[in-house]
Amino acid sequence: MIRYRKPGQDDAAILQLIESQLVPLSNLSPKELDTIRKDIPTRLRRGVTLVASPNQEGNIIAFIHFMLHGELLYIDMLAVAPAAQRKRLGISLMKHAEGFALSRGCKRAKVMVDLGNQKGLSFYQKLGYSIIRIITPNQCYEMEKIW
Question: What count of other Cβ atoms lies within 10 Å of the Cβ of residue 2?
Fold first, then answer.
């Protein structure tokens, strides 16, 4: 089941997914990661977060966080628990986010993928995203999809 994030109920699980699935892929320094960790509650309040769970009150097994900027959908974070990977949850979350954005007039989407994250790079390429450039200071690929 995919639903909107419930802050009091879901945030601990979202933070755990960030720590276990996203932080290990990052090329940022420990100091930069600490700064980002402190900013996560603010980021979650700024955009839309969808979560996947077995049922309405079940444990979070995946989430996507995104923001809309005019005609741009920006995928901020996507993570799937290891036991739930390869079950199309990431694809389903992406389709929901893209559908949300399209219904609000977005014409393109962007996502940043850490250098070295081959699984993430391949995932987004299969969904139609292309590498635009490498952002050297952040050590990531900037990827875009145009509808």
Answer: 15
Contacts of 34 (CB under 8 A, 6+ apart): none
E strand spans, the chain: 2-4, 48-52, 62-69, 72-80, 108-114, 130-135, 140-146
CA distance 82 to 73: 26
100 in helix, strand or coil? helix
The token pair that represents 109 in the structure block: 């989407």
Q: pTM here?
A: 0.94
Residue count of the chain = 147
What is the greatest pairwise CA distance in the chain?
41
User: Per residue in 65-120, pLDDT tens?
Assistant: 999 999 999 999 999 999 999 999 999 999 999 999 999 999 999 999 999 999 99
Query: What does the DSSP 8-state code read for residue 23?
Result: G
**Rounded to an integer, what is the distance from CA 10 to the centroid of its chain?**
15
What's the pLDDT tens digit per position in 119-130?
999 999 999 999
Taking the C-alpha atoms of residue 14 and residue 81, their distance in angstroms, rounded to an integer, is 10
